[in-house]
Write a structure and sequence with these properties.
This protein is α+β, with helices and mostly antiparallel strands. It has two domains: 99 residues, C2 domain (Immunoglobulin-like, Sandwich), CATH 2.60.40.150; 200 residues, GTPase Activation - p120gap, domain 1 (GTPase Activation - p120GAP, domain 1), CATH 1.10.506.10. It is 36% helix and 17% strand. The strands form two sheets. Strands 3, 4, 6, 7, 8 and 9 form a six-stranded antiparallel sheet that branches. InterPro entries: C2_dom, C2_domain_sf, Ras_GTPase, RasGAP_CS, RasGAP_dom, Rho_GTPase_activation_prot. It comes from Anopheles maculatus. Keywords: GTPase activation. GO terms for molecular function: GTPase activator activity.
């Protein structure tokens, strides 16, 4: 925006020459300027230009004059100016402090006119007045918080955001956690008590079992325990001892490990900790193929717009399921030794307490390896680091 500023006697004259590259609103721009003089006693004198139609590079060539000082009556010799003018005038004389020139897009019948930008020229005292260039280009700036209109908002009155909502507001809930890590020797007694749980008879008297009983969040307990026992190479016997006790209390083989007990959570964590590379080697190629091809697999009629597409979707689904099943069944030799040992122990425990049921020795293993390892990874590949691509529900649901 090109503005010329000049002073004659005790008056300041501002000439709006032109603007370039104003913002468009809905493809249109009908700009006009508002010039506001602010005085030290809070008095304001407002004038405006005519609207320039359909242009982002308007030429104004309009001149406005303001008194540098006003008397108690608020007299201003610029009242004879033909430009539209109004004043807000409290009692008492004052000096001119600042001139604000703002631009708006005229949108009659559409509510408030759209703000395009503003500049603020400080002119209080000789030093600031002499610093103003007689003719200069100014970059339009965002509206300051003091000049933003008051609007109704959901923020309770009297709060910091209730007075300034032109850009919206963001509500955050922050949770701060402080973890204190002590020297390793501090944990020696706890470490020894936990390690002794493997040999503790009965297992219900062990520290590990007691932790599982008193903890509401079994996952938070299982994660550090699995890491501890994996580090000391005793994770398999620890899970075997807990699983043997849990299975011994059951009368129905179909309910084995169906609850969220400590041993089931430790199994989940052990599979993720020791089997993540195995999981990636088994499923990542087919998951990458699914993302690359982006074939729809939705077969629910209520979720398919074109019912005729269900047959093709079913073919895609069967093709992918076949490839996944083949990849899993051929991966047995790649399964980590520690997981093979854990699954062997679970199978022996199930067969020990349900010798007449020939299927339980297989279902107890498949319940973990399929339902709690491979299946969650297929449905949520990002959670298992199988992909970084956004998951489309019709692909994996």
């Amino acid at each position: 925006m090109l503005v010329g500023v000049g002073g004659v006697s005790s008056r300041i004259t501002i000439k709006l020459t032109e603007c370039v590259d104003l913002a468009r609103k809905n493809g249109l721009c009908d700009p006009y300027a508002i010039v506001v003089a602010h005085y030290s006693n809070k008095k304001t004198i407002t004038k405006r230009t005519k609207v320039r139609k359909k242009t982002i590079n308007p030429s104004f060539d309009e001149t406005f004059s303001f008194d540098l000082c006003i008397d108690a009556c608020g007299s201003d010799s610029s009242k004879s100016d033909s430009n539209n003018m109004y004043t807000v005038m409290p009692l008492g004389g004052a000096d001119l402090c600042e001139v604000v020139i703002s631009f708006k897009h005229a949108s009659p019948g559409m509510g408030d006119d759209v703000f395009l930008g503003e500049i603020r020229i400080p002119v209080r005292g000789k030093q600031q007045q002499n610093a103003v260039q007689p003719s200069a280009w100014y970059f339009l700036q965002p509206r300051t918080s003091q000049s933003r209109p008051m609007r109704t908002c959901a923020t309770p009155p009297g709060t910091r955001l209730s007075c300034d909502n032109s850009l919206g507001s963001l509500r955050l809930k922050l949770n701060y956690t402080s973890d204190h890590v002590f020297p390793l020797a501090t944990y020696d007694q706890l470490y020894n008590v936990l390690i002794q749980s493997i040999e503790q008879k009965p297992i219900t008297a062990s520290a590990v079992h007691i932790l599982g009983e008193i903890s509401h969040n079994k996952t938070e307990v299982a994660q550090p325990l699995v890491r501890l026992f994996t580090h000391t190479n005793v994770i398999a016997p620890m899970i075997k001892a807990l699983a043997d006790h849990e299975i011994s209390k059951l009368t129905d083989p179909t309910t084995i490990f169906r609850g969220n007990t400590l041993v089931s959570k430790m199994m989940d964590e052990a599979m993720r900790l020791s089997g993540l590379h195995y999981l990636h080697a088994t499923l990542r190629p087919i998951v990458e193929e699914i993302f690359a091809e982006k074939k729809p697999c939705e077969i629910d009629p209520s979720r398919v717009k074109d019912v005729g597409a269900i047959e093709g979707n079913l073919h895609n689904l069967q093709d992918y399921v076949g490839k996944v099943f083949e990849a899993i069944t051929k991966s047995a030799v790649k399964c980590p030794a520690i997981l093979c040992e854990i699954f062997h122990n679970l199978r022996e425990c199930a067969a020990k307490y349900f010798p007449q049921n020939k299927e339980v020795r297989y279902s107890v293993v498949s319940g973990f390896i399929f339902l709690r390892f491979f299946a969650p990874a297929i449905l949520g590949p990002k959670l298992f680091d199988l992909t970084t691509e956004p998951v489309v529900s019709v692909m994996f649901s």
